[in-house]
Amino acid sequence: MKKSKLNREWHLSHRMPARATFEQRLEWHLEHAKSCRCRAITGKIAEEMKKRGMSMPDS
Hints:
There is one protein chain. The protein has 59 residues and is mainly alpha-helical. It has a domain of 31 residues. The chain is built from three helices and no strands. The protein is globular and about 30 Å long.
Protein backbone atom coordinates (compact mmCIF):
# COMPACT_ATOMS: atom_id res chain seq x y z
CA MET A 1 0.00 0.00 0.00
CA LYS A 2 1.34 3.42 -1.00
CA LYS A 3 1.74 5.94 1.84
CA SER A 4 -0.15 9.21 1.36
CA LYS A 5 1.81 12.43 0.92
CA LEU A 6 -0.97 14.30 2.75
CA ASN A 7 -0.06 15.55 6.21
CA ARG A 8 -3.57 15.42 7.70
CA GLU A 9 -2.56 16.90 11.05
CA TRP A 10 -0.93 19.91 9.38
CA HIS A 11 -3.97 20.54 7.21
CA LEU A 12 -6.33 20.36 10.19
CA SER A 13 -4.31 22.84 12.23
CA HIS A 14 -3.38 25.26 9.43
CA ARG A 15 -6.55 26.34 7.69
CA MET A 16 -6.38 28.94 4.93
CA PRO A 17 -7.92 32.13 6.36
CA ALA A 18 -11.32 33.12 5.01
CA ARG A 19 -10.95 35.89 2.43
CA ALA A 20 -7.18 35.52 2.56
CA THR A 21 -5.12 38.25 0.95
CA PHE A 22 -2.65 37.28 -1.75
CA GLU A 23 0.22 37.70 0.75
CA GLN A 24 -1.54 35.36 3.22
CA ARG A 25 -2.10 32.82 0.46
CA LEU A 26 1.55 33.03 -0.58
CA GLU A 27 2.72 32.51 3.01
CA TRP A 28 0.28 29.61 3.53
CA HIS A 29 1.45 27.85 0.37
CA LEU A 30 5.11 28.21 1.32
CA GLU A 31 4.47 26.73 4.77
CA HIS A 32 2.31 24.04 3.19
CA ALA A 33 5.10 23.00 0.83
CA LYS A 34 7.48 22.64 3.79
CA SER A 35 5.09 20.50 5.83
CA CYS A 36 3.00 18.55 3.34
CA ARG A 37 3.76 17.05 -0.04
CA CYS A 38 0.20 16.57 -1.27
CA ARG A 39 0.56 18.96 -4.23
CA ALA A 40 2.96 21.31 -5.95
CA ILE A 41 2.75 25.09 -5.91
CA THR A 42 1.25 26.16 -9.24
CA GLY A 43 -0.68 28.98 -10.87
CA LYS A 44 -0.56 32.58 -9.69
CA ILE A 45 1.35 31.67 -6.52
CA ALA A 46 4.14 30.02 -8.54
CA GLU A 47 4.18 32.91 -11.02
CA GLU A 48 4.53 35.47 -8.23
CA MET A 49 7.29 33.47 -6.56
CA LYS A 50 9.19 33.47 -9.86
CA LYS A 51 8.69 37.26 -10.25
CA ARG A 52 10.05 37.80 -6.73
CA GLY A 53 13.04 35.54 -7.35
CA MET A 54 11.84 33.06 -4.72
CA SER A 55 12.83 29.41 -5.06
CA MET A 56 10.31 26.61 -4.91
CA PRO A 57 10.51 24.50 -1.75
CA ASP A 58 11.82 20.99 -2.33
CA SER A 59 9.04 18.61 -3.23
